[in-house]
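Recall from the previous lesson that a structure prediction takes nothing but the amino acid sequence as input. Here we apply that procedure to DUF4349 domain-containing protein from Chryseobacterium indicum. The sequence below is the only information supplied.
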Amino acid sequence: MKKLLLPLFCLILIHCKKSEAHSLNANLVNVAEEDKLIAIDSSAVALKSPVVDASIRFPSEKTISEKTTAISKKIIKNGNLRIQVGDIKKAQDQVSSIVKSNKAYIQKEEFQNNDNEENIDLTIRVPHQNFDALVNSFSDGVGSVLSKNISSDDVTEEYTDVSIKLTNKKIYLEKYRDMLKSAKTTKDILEIQENIRELEDEIDVSEGRLRFIDDRVNYSTLNLSLYKEKVRTSATSKVGFGSRFGDSVTEGWNSFVAFLLGVISLWPFFLLIPVLVFLWRKWRNRKKK
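The prediction returns the following tokens.
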């Protein structure tokens, strides 16, 4: 009886080992399948491989892309306009009226006044749908356009790229937070927390970039310069005769004052004139004798 029990026990032991081997192989296959499902986007923070629950699956890149909604065209319009005017104050009033009627606002204003010109530089933000109307109103009704530069930049590709990466990072962030709940050791907790911190920083940067692009798309920017020349010629001016006549009188007075000041600046030489006259007369008297 003992001889029969010994072989039977050996068979049972071998069978158990085979079952364990099959179970181990099945676990390895499951782990391999889990690894294939992890498709980390190139922009995401590199994983530091902390020991975590293998049941947590990261989303594939295809799944993330499908969740990203379609993005409309993103066009940023900018412009630079320089206008010569006859009266700065009147031009300012016209600009304020045009800005108000187009639902725009003045973001920045700078005023300069020197001997030759008065100049006001304005940075105007206007809803993108009113940009063309605003530019045309300034070009037609304020003064003489000296220069005009309008540009349009298509940032749809950049916006889409940043949006997809942002979606990826938010999904990874949620997964890391789930992993943090199941972490067992202090090392794993610290590594996961560091990954979470880095992802949160990158998410803040991406969201800030998207807000900036949206602001530039929704509100176009126009840099307007109002220019009043104090000393003009008829060849460079297109304003009325009365204004040009006044400028001519001012120019003549300025020229006279400049001449007078130039003469006064020669006063040291005037002191030498009596000396030169005295020496000349003395030399002439000697020559006569």
